[in-house]
Target: MORN repeat-containing protein 3
Amino acid sequence: MYCIKHRRTTEPLWHKWDEKAQKCGLRHTVYAVNGDQYTGEWLDNLKHGKGTQVWKRTGAIYSGDWKFGKRDGYGSYSIPDPVTKEYKKVYTGWWKNDRKCGYGETFYPGGERYEGEWSGGLRSGWGRMYYQDGSIYEGQWLEDRPGGQGMLRLPNENRYEGGWKDGMKHGPGKFFYLDKGQLFEGIWAADIPKCGMLIDFGRDEAPAPTQYPIPKV
Model:
């Protein structure tokens, strides 16, 4: 005579529901050991599809697309204000492999803002940067700094148009001193003009022209 013993499992039922939800792509909320929270879609036990991640330590929130456990696609990243506790948007745009990649907009402390292209989490490609002092740079970026061709417009409307390297004026360029009605055209190296020509430019409309016009050559 044989005796058949039935095995009882001690695994909680919610474990099975959690596994089923993650593997079937259903929306589900999961808490990490450190308190981080994710609510969204899953694929093969990885965040995949639409979802929202909340980091407990910083309070930061990412809401958007995920691919195999990483931010990938379109999404926004926000952090709470240390004083008001209200959430402030830091970045909205495209991601790839958990880093900013493609077109996006970033808001910096002090009111500065960048809109343009990213690569590997760095400003790269075309972009426009609004600085705290009122200056605006528009042009090419390379590894998070102006590099290539671009224009910098100062708060007094004076502007530089030309080459950039490592965030500094470099190569052929033009500096328009619109407040004085002059134009300098020449060659820059590491933000310093090395040679060129200064001529009157819009002197009659300038708000503070020099006392004497520049003689024509």
In short: The first helix runs from residue 13 to 24.
